[in-house]
Amino acid sequence: MPYPTDPAGIAGLWVAWLLMLMIYSYPLYKENLAFRFAEHTYIGITLGVSLIVAMSNVIRIAIVPMLQGKYHYIIPIILGFMMYSLLVPRYRWVSRYPIAILVGAGFGLGMRGVLIPNITQQVISTITPPATGAGAVDWWNYIYIAIGTICAVMYFVLTWEHRGGLGYATRLGRWIIMIGLGAYFGNTVLFRMAMLSGRAQFFLQVLKIVPM
Amino acid sequence: MSEELTFWEKLARIDRRVFYWILFIGLMVPFIRPLGLAITVSPSTRDLYEELRRVQPGDVCLINIAFGVSAWPECMPATAACTKLLIRQGAKLIIIGPYYDVDLSYEELKRRCAEDFAKLKYGEDYVYLGFYAGGEAVVAQLASDFRSVFPTDAYGTPLDELPMMKNINKATDIRLVLSSDTGDWCSYYIRQWRIPYGVPLAEIGIAMLGSEYMPHYRAGILFGMSVGVRGGAELEKLIGEPADATIRMDAINISHILVIIAVLLGNIGYFASRGKRR
Amino acid sequence: MSEVLRREVVYLITAITTIIMFVEFFFIGTWSAAEELRTWAIIIANIALGLGAVRLLAEHVRNIQRRRAGVWPFSIWLIILFVVMFLSGLTGYAAKHDPSSNPVYNWLFKWPYTSLGQTLYAITGFYIFSAAYRAFRARNIDAALLLIAGCFVILTNATVGEVIWSGIPVIGRWFLDYGQVPGMRCFLIVAAFGMLAYGFRALLGRERGFYGEVAGE
After folding, report:
1. What domain range includes position A163?
2. Count of structural domains within chain A
3. pLDDT digits over B52-70, tens only?
4. Between residues 125 and 184 of chain C, which touch chain A (CB distance below 8 Å)?
5. A180 in a domain, yes or no?
């Protein structure tokens, strides 16, 4: 965003900068009152935003359509408010009804959803050999992925003890998983550092050391 | 009397805050003195770019902003680059998001693509439907009936009053979906849009999802993938407009070098002190 | 009777909803009852969004009532901010259907909220850096493989890897495009089977943790 010129914008920018320093005073110095102040500021604002957005969304998707003729929406609206019985220990069981619908929908959709992309397609992709004319590298990658996937899945087969032939396969599977997790860690570093670099950039931008 | 510490043992006892200061200052340096190293494009980003280039004028594309303001540095560059490309291809855009601060992200996206959005007319070329909640159920419902999830756009205008949305109500009306995630939303779109309806889908979210969704990309379920800020920088290179991600790649270089040095020092110290213990 | 209402009927509703959602896959886009049920689930989920906020607020009200040392003044500040945010957002929504049309809401949302969100999310960058030094060690073959793959990917993601040695991005790209695939694919397959098993247990009323059942309730 461009450097603000209006008083509210300039004030906002400096407040944002100070709050950032308050939060980073925790890792860069130690736990302190400024950190706690900033932390509670974030939670307070977040609570307000989340309630306002949730409320306006309920009005949009449930209350207004109900008032326009979809009277049966009163049932899910009542069920939704039954969730709040979780706050009253004696009547907590009432919340199980809306939870049952949410959980049922989640499981039904999840179960039907995972079959093809997570199992069938993955198996097909694993066992499909490279196209005609593929080079040695393609064949190596194919064999690596095929054997690697089988061994890695076998690592999670706990019906039999991992000894003998199965022991060798599961050990290879564990190495394959470690390679996967190593790559995952590498990407995690990228993600975390991208976030932190954003803050380092903001630190300099507010001080006008680099352009905004 | 205590035994004298070796160099490595002393190094191992350095206060962690020293590392934090080194990192934070190290991250600032390249913004002041850029390195400007060349960026190579990965196959998954190129596939994403090529498919977006095949979008025809009038095709309706869905952009799912499934990240909060907190993930802007990572997700926004790729989202902005893809949005620019889609607008230039003449696509019509539907923008939605499952994070309650999606309004801020939408405004930021529009700001970053200001020149492109300036050529468009709201309601005819793009619509912003705003926030939605409900996990996988809401994604499945979007696929079969947009209007039950979004009776109006984010500003309260009924969808039927928006010219662009007149004939749009289900997954099959959509040319492709771009999901920019920090969480599971791309999985929901795979399960409820890609598989049942065959809608082309790409992931342009945080870097860790580059690992999680690589099997889907290899299996042909995703047509492309942009991995974090690096993917954003690659897309900026492909569309010929270096922007935020390209600038940030210098800081990524410094931080990654620092991490590698930390790993090396930690391991040298570990093996040196292990030898001594033996 | 009460036991039937509290448990058996609840399990039955879960089972019926699960079956409807599952079977709908074979009649996709044509079964309006399933779509209606899903709309109900979405409305319930949206109303439930406020539950976490209400719970957290109740916790902070308790902090103030009990004058919890070192915490209660911050709880007062938190509640003041919440009230300001909520009321200003409400005013904006009532006026223009958009909470951000209120300048106070907009200012708090645009500046402090954005900055704090980005800052808190980024804080783990520090921890991953010290973890790289203190924990990321080649103690055995497993850890060594993890470390090697991790280091190549780190140097590949950063363009500087190519400057150090032209082979780094070649090897790192292999880890990213192929090396990690079997491990990640294995997680996908295993998690899918786990989800199926868990789903069937829920369908049969064997899995009850998510109902928040407490012994003796």
Report:
1. 129-212
2. 1
3. 999 999 999 999 999 999 9
4. 125-128, 132, 136, 141-143, 145-154, 156-158, 172, 175-176, 178-184
5. yes
Contacts for B191 with CB less than 8 Å, ≥ 6 apart: A109, A110, A112, A113, A114, A117, B136, B139
Pick from C17, C47, C115: which is nearest to A104 by CB?
Answer: C17
Q: Using CA atoms, how far apart are residues B96 and B105, in angstroms rounded to an integer? A: 10
Report the distance separating Cα C121 and Cα C124, nearest Å.
7
Number of cross-chain residue pairs from B and C with Cβ atoms under 8 Å apart: 162
Q: Is C8 on the interface with A (CB under 8 A)?
A: no
Confidence label for C216 from pLDDT (cuts 50, 70 and 90):
very low
Determine the residue of chain B that is closest to A114 in CA distance: B191
For residue A160, being part of any structural domain is answered with yes
Which of the residues A15, A20, A31, A101 would you substitute to probe the C interface, choosing the one with the greatest number of C C-beta atoms within 10 Å?
A: A101
Q: Residues of B numbered 145-204 whose beta carbons fall under 8 angstroms of chain C's beta carbons: which are they?
A: 145, 148-149, 154-156, 170, 196-197
In this complex, do C176 and B210 lie within 8 Å of one another by their Cβ atoms? Answer: yes
**Domain presence at residue A61:** no
Which of A57, A79, A177 faces C183 most closely, judged by CB atoms? A177
* Domain ranges within chain B, ordered by starting residue: 7-33+248-277, 43-242
Contacts of A122 in chain B (CB under 8 A): 215, 219
d(CA A183, CA C153): 6
**What is the ipTM score, two decimals?**
0.93
Residue C215 has pLDDT above 50, yes or no: no
Mark out the alpha helices in chain C (DSSP H runs).
2-3, 9-23, 32-65, 72-96, 103-108, 114-122, 124-134, 141-157, 160-164, 167-174, 181-203
Q: Which two tokens stand for residue B166?
A: 């007149």
The residue of chain B nearest to residue A113, with distances taken between CA atoms, is B191
Select the residue of C132, C158, C180 nearest B263 (Cβ to Cβ): C132
Beta carbons of A122 and B24 less than 8 Å apart: no
Burial label, A63 (beta-carbon count in 10 A; 0-12, 13-18, 19+): middle
Closest by CA to C44, choosing from B176, B5, B137, is B137
Which of C96, C147, C176, C189 best probes binding to A when mutated, by most A CB atoms within 10 angstroms? C189
Asked if B34 reaches chain C (Cβ–Cβ under 8 Å), the answer is no
Query: Please, which pLDDT band fits residue C1 given cuts at 50, 70 and 90?
Result: low
Cβ pair A65:B151 closer than 8 A? yes
Chain mean pLDDT for chain B: 94
What residues in A contact C31, CB-CB < 8 Å?
A: none
> A12 in a domain, yes or no?
no
CA distance C189 to A122: 8
C54 and A84 in contact (C-beta within 8 Å)? yes
B181-214 pLDDT per residue, tens: 999 999 999 999 999 999 999 999 999 999 999 9
CATH assignment, B43-242: 3.40.50
Query: pLDDT tens across A84-138, in order?
Result: 999 998 899 999 999 999 999 999 999 999 999 999 999 999 999 999 888 999 9
Instruction: Answer whether C43 sits within 8 Å of A77, measured CB to CB.
Output: yes
Give me the mean pLDDT over the A173-180 stretch.
97
pLDDT tens digits along C59-116: 999 999 999 988 999 999 999 999 999 999 999 999 988 899 999 999 999 999 999 9
